[in-house]
Design brief:
membrane; transmembrane helix; 13 helices
């Protein structure tokens, strides 16, 4: 029996070096995704609640403007992903519909940050799977296994408990936060329906490229009508605080970085990995916000949020096993 030749040490060393570089690259992407997600959330809170910049619609418009410009540069100039053209008016109408729903979710989330602590905002945001399951059933009649629906019970129960134990509870802020969460779930289901055919599918970066300018066109008149003194106050704040413009630009750039890193992490790992990381990200955001903004928390609030996150994790596992 002939023995196999010994492994080439240089080949093994090369493979080891390549795997280390890949691991370092993925770790860097995850760090970028975490810092962008948490950074934009905390900066939104700081600008809207602690800095006197009380214009959530205009802030969302700044985010979408940055996404439009940076998406164009990333796709057209830097060729990060191939450009996928819009093929028909019908497809454009679908993208515009998604853009309007997306605007509603982001604006609602930013409005809620004016009135609610980040920790409670994240607890309410954890109910996204619940609304996704509801909209998927109502719009596509898609049913999940009973175990999957059972996993949503602690998600909702956790938010109810957290609401009762939240010292900074604000009804209007809570309604806006729930509305934003529902709109986010509605957008994900609607996207699956509207862009489901092979000829119309767009990756998330191309979808953002087309959605962002539409969002700006929708948000600009809304900001001028509903926030009539936005330009005057923004310019005044810019003169009073020398870092105002820097914070606004950094915040808007982070909004794009969140979308870019989300796409890259999913591409180089998996959607399941992103879901697990997302659950942990919420907990990190909660702890960070408590340390930074010093908002009071109660045991009931902590217990409710923990229950919601555990329910989301169980829901994700149930969907994976019973699909």
């Amino acid at each position: 029996m002939r023995s196999s030749p010994p492994a080439n040490p240089s080949t093994m060393s090369s493979l080891s070096s390549s795997s280390k570089k890949q691991a370092l690259f993925i770790t860097s992407l995850i760090v970028l995704w975490y810092s962008s997600n948490i950074g934009v959330l905390l900066l939104n809170k700081f600008l809207l609640s602690n800095y006197g910049f009380r214009f959530p619609i205009f802030l969302t418009m700044c985010h979408m403007s940055a996404c439009a410009i940076l998406s164009y540069l990333s796709i057209v100039f830097f060729k990060m992903v191939p450009l996928q053209p819009v093929k028909s008016r019908h497809q454009f109408f679908k993208i515009a519909t998604l853009s309007v729903v997306f605007c509603g979710s982001v604006v609602g989330g930013n409005i809620s940050l004016r009135y609610l602590p980040v920790s409670f905002n994240q607890a309410v945001g954890a109910t996204t799977p619940f609304f996704t399951a509801v909209f998927a059933y109502l719009m596509t009649f898609k049913r999940e296994a009973w175990v999957t629906y059972a996993a949503l019970v602690p998600v909702v129960a956790g938010v109810v408990i957290a609401s009762g134990g939240e010292p900074g509870f604000h009804l209007y802020g809570f309604i806006m936060c729930i509305s934003a969460t529902a709109a986010r779930a509605f957008k994900s289901v609607l996207q699956g329906i509207l862009l489901s055919s092979e000829g119309e599918k767009l990756n998330s970066m191309n979808l953002l490229l087309y959605m962002s300018p539409i969002a700006v066109l929708v948000l600009l008149p809304a900001a001028l009508i509903m926030e009539p003194n936005v330009l005057e106050v923004t310019l005044s704040l810019g003169r009073q605080h020398k870092y105002m413009w820097l914070l606004l630009i950094l915040n808007s750039t982070m909004a794009y970085s969140t979308n870019l890193s989300n796409f890259l992490v999913t591409k180089h790992t998996s959607a399941l990995t992103l879901q697990v990381l997302g659950n942990a990200k919420g907990a990190v955001a909660v702890v960070s916000s408590i340390f930074i903004f010093r908002n009071p928390v109660t045991l009931a609030g902590i217990a409710g949020y923990t229950m919601s996150v555990a329910g989301v994790a169980a829901y994700g596992e149930a969907k994976r096993r019973f699909r």
